[in-house]
């Protein structure tokens, strides 16, 4: 797992209510620009904020900067359109392919934001693509924009670097309707833990998608073996969902729900975010062992389902991996009540399985016998299943090392 830092600066509407926030990648707790490229920074922000945060995406707007490479790779489509404002970086130039891609984003409901400089550079012939113009009060006088704002009345103008009451009043008087700056609130640095999928898993997914995109079973198999990737696939399915009537109960459901194109974009985002750190390898190995072990058991209980048991085992270490309460993590995922209860309170049949596994891992044989009696299982048979799962997990993890 790795710490990810990003600056979060609120944006306010004309009535001074928070309208959204701008996210900018940072390398530490100081509000300094990073030394990595824009696409890598963007991918890390998206992975950490959308796929590993506890924020309610449906009720939040985030301005995120995208370079041309990320836009052409359709990385924004990994995030819900109602939550994401696409802010073009200065390295974006209006070639035919990029213009076509921006039109497609707007058709999908995404809003496009550009610096006010777009009105005077190569983008001036494509201003109909822009929903929001960003103007720095440090660089421009608000009154200089009055005529432009009146001319482009269908578009929104954001005044940046507003630091004084008189600057706010001047910007409001000429038609600015969004505002950002130290006058309202200084940016806060948010620290987030992000779990790294195996690079080999990501590459395997790319190979399967390119060679045989209809091979759902193989895709599911690869994803199921990597706890971090499984978590992000299910989280992505949840945040992209427009309507859902059924719970996502197993990895195959998540893959089918996302579809090949969305899965391809998600994997591209994770590869671009340079998540090649393997500090969580041991925790992921324990989680995969539990997932394999739980799903192999035959338990006579109406709450027990082998697919759900796999998810419980796979996610049982996420609170440690992400350094967040399990209740915050599962609140983002559309899981059954029994699964959530097991993960958060260690109650019910799934909670008993987690405690059973913990007792085996720590050689607490009295605990093993107690939980086997509760679950009506033979303790010797359970230990054989656990050992088989351990061997299987060791084989899988050894093949996934990067």
TrEMBL record:
Database matches in Gene3D superfamilies: EAL domain, Hypothetical protein af1432
Residue ranges of domain HDOD in the record: 189-381
Signal peptide boundaries: none
Name of one Pfam family that matches: HDOD
Residue ranges that the Swiss-Prot or TrEMBL entry lists as coiled coil: none
Top-level taxon of the source organism: Bacteria
Name of the molecule in the record: Signal transduction protein
């Amino acid at each position: 797992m790795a710490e990810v830092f990003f600056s979060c600066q609120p944006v306010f509407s004309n009535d001074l209510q928070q309208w959204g926030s701008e996210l900018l990648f940072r390398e530490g707790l100081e509000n300094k620009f990073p030394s990595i490229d824009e696409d890598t920074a963007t991918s890390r922000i998206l992975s950490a904020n959308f796929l590993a945060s506890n924020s309610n995406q449906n009720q939040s707007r985030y301005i995120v900067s995208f370079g041309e490479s990320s836009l052409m790779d359709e990385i924004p489509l990994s995030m819900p359109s109602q939550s994401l404002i696409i802010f073009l970086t200065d390295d974006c130039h209006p070639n035919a392919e990029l213009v076509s891609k921006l039109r497609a984003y707007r058709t999908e409901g995404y809003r496009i934001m550009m610096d006010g400089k777009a009105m005077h550079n190569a983008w001036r012939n494509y201003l109909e693509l822009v929903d929001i113009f960003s103007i720095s009060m440090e660089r421009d006088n608000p009154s200089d924009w009055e005529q432009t704002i009146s001319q482009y009345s269908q578009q929104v103008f954001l005044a940046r670097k507003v630091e004084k009451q008189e600057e706010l009043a001047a910007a409001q008087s000429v038609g600015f309707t969004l505002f950002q700056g130290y006058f309202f609130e200084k940016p806060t640095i948010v620290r987030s833990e992000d779990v790294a999928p195996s690079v080999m898993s990501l590459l395997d997914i790319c190979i399967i998608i390119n060679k045989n995109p209809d091979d759902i079973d193989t895709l599911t198999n690869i994803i199921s073996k990597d706890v971090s990737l499984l978590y992000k696939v299910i989280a992505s399915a949840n945040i992209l969902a427009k309507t859902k009537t059924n719970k996502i109960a197993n990895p195959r459901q998540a893959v089918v729900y996302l579809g090949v194109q969305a899965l391809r974009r998600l994997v591209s985002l994770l590869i671009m975010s340079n998540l090649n750190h393997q500090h969580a390898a041991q925790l992921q190995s324990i989680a995969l062992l539990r997932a394999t072990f739980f799903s192999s058991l035959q338990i006579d209980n109406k709450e027990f389902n082998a697919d759900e048991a796999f998810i419980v085992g796979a996610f049982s270490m996420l609170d440690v991996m992400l350094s967040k309460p399990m209740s915050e993590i599962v609140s983002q995922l559309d899981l059954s009540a029994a699964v959530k209860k097991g993960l958060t309170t260690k109650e019910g049949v799934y909670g008993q399985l987690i405690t059973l596994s913990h007792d085996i891992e720590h050689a607490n044989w009295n605990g093993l016998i107690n939980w086997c009696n509760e679950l009506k299982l033979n303790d010797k048979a359970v230990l054989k299943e656990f050992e088989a799962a351990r061997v299987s997990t060791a084989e899988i993890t050894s093949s996934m090392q990067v």
